[in-house]
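Supplementary Note 3. Input sequence used for the single-chain structure prediction.
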Amino acid sequence: MKRNDIKSDFEKMADSLESGIMEQMQRNYSHTVIDHAMNPRNIGKIEGAEGHARFTGPCGDIMEIFLRIQNNVITEVSFMTDGCGTSLASGSMVTELVKRKHIQAAYRINQKNVLEALGGLPEEDEHCALLAASTMKLAVQDYLSTRNHLWKRMYKPGERS
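The predicted structure, written as discrete structure tokens, is reproduced below.
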């Protein structure tokens, strides 16, 4: 067997495996969930964010959300998570839902809003949407607690800017 034949067989096996995984994912998750899990939006840290929260969900996944706000409108938002694909998709979606929105609209985002925007999640994964919505609410609360007292941010561990 030639080297090119081995490579070709390996590539065929990898393509077949990838195809099988995608078929299984498509049976369980909407196109939107798969898209946000594989191509997350707004991922990363915002240095000097005006609002920030870090929250651990019931499954142990951790999510962080960072907000930059001007005139009570979210101008930049990002997130990070150490969680599974549905946590990644939920974090990505919640950031998309609040972009260019008033902080009160962002504060009202809940698990149901995230689930609807994602096209639903299997019952065992619904807690990921709750993690994203709860972390967003905490990030807005963080902003509200320091917006009139910017000096308070200097005394928050790990948030000096």
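Helices lie at 3-28, 31-38, 85-98, 103-107, 111-118, 126-146. Residues 3-28 form the longest helix (26 residues).
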